[in-house]
Amino acid sequence: MPTTPDHPGARTPRAAPLRIGYGSNGFTDHRLHEALTVLADLGYDGVAVTPDTGHLDPYEPGLPVRVDALAAHADRLGLALTVETGARYVIDPHRKHAPTLLDADPAPRLDYLRRCLRIAAGLGAPTMALWSGAAPPGLAPAAVWDRLVRATEELLDDAARHGVALGFEPEPGMFVDTIAGYERLRDLLGAPAGFGICLDLGHCVCTESAAVPDCVARVAADLVAVQIEDMRRGVHEHREFGTGDIDFPPVLAALAAAGYTGLVGIELPRHAHAAPAVAARSLAFLRRAEHAARVPEEAR
Predict the structure, then answer these.
(1) Which of 45, 129, 136, 219 could form a disulfide with 167 if both were Cys (CB 3.0 to 4.6 A apart)?
(2) Is residue 218 part of a domain?
(3) Is residue 51 a part of any domain in this protein?
C-alpha cells in the first residue's frame, strides 16, 4: 500500500489518540443526521455510514442532495466519514446479504456497491468496506475465486475514478473469512493500489488462530479500515466491550505501532435500541483501554 500522507492508511509516527468512530448501523432507530449529532456530542471523531433502507437509501430519488447535506452536517460537527456496505436487505427484501459478488449474476450487488462508491465520494469518505458473500452451493472453489476476482477488478476501476480506497473485510461465514483469504485475493488481483484490508478486530477472535495484536501486525501495511467490538472465541456475535474475550490494551497498542491513522469504527449493529448509552460506554471503554496501552505494564 502507498504511504503518502493523504492515503487513508498512511503510516506516520503518532502520539495522538486513536480516531474512534461509530457505525451508523448501530443507530438505525435514529435519523442519520441526528445520529451524527449525538455521536459528535459524545466526543466521537467520525462515523462509518452504511447506506441502507433508512440511512441514505441508495435507490431513492434525491440522493445527491441528501449526500451533500450530510457531508455539510458532518463537516460542521467535525466528524470524519467512511462507508461500509453491510446492509442486510437493501437489495433483496427476502434474502439477507443477497445477491453477492459470487452469484452467477453479480450485477445487482455491483450496482449497489457502485452507488455506495458515489455516496462515499460525495461524503468525502476516503474508504469503502466490502466483503465477498457466501460461496454458492456446489460451485468449485476455483470458479468462486474467478468470480470474486473479476467482480473486484470491476469495482477497483470505479473506486479509482472516485478516489476511494476499497477495504476488503474477511467476514465469518463468507467465502473470504480469514486474513489468509484476503491475502490470496490481494495477490490474485496483483496487489493493486487503492486496495487493502478492512480488519474487524472481533472477527480475529472468531476466525483466526493468532492473537489479535499479531493479526494487526500481520496486515499493518495493508490496513485501509478498522472495525472494533468485543467477541467470544469462535462465536460471531458483536458484543459490547468487556463482555467478550478480547484484551483491548494490547490490541490498541498494536494499532498504534502499525501507525494506523484512519477511523477505528465501533460496530454494534444490534444495539440500536440503546444506541446513545451504548455509544457513550463504548467510547469511554476504548479511551481507558488506550490509556492503559500507553502505561508500562509494571506501572499498572
Answers:
(1) 129
(2) yes
(3) yes
- Please give the Cα distance from 39 to 24 (Å, whole number): 10
Q: Are 199 and 225 in contact (CB under 8 A)?
A: yes
Strands 223-228 and 263-266: parallel
* pLDDT per residue rounded down to tens, the chain (300 residues): 433 333 444 443 344 689 999 999 999 999 999 999 999 999 999 999 999 999 999 999 999 999 999 999 999 999 999 999 999 999 999 999 999 999 999 999 999 999 999 999 999 999 999 999 999 999 999 999 999 999 999 999 999 999 999 999 999 999 999 999 999 999 999 999 999 999 999 999 999 999 999 999 999 999 999 999 999 999 999 999 999 999 999 999 999 999 999 999 999 999 999 999 999 999 999 999 999 998 755 454
Burial class of residue 17 in the structure, from the number of CB atoms within 10 Å of its CB (0-12 exposed, 13-18 middle, 19+ buried): middle
- The number of domains in the chain is 1
Domain extent at residue 95: 36-294
Q: For residue 58, give the CATH number of its domain.
A: 3.20.20.150
Domain annotation covers residue 44: yes
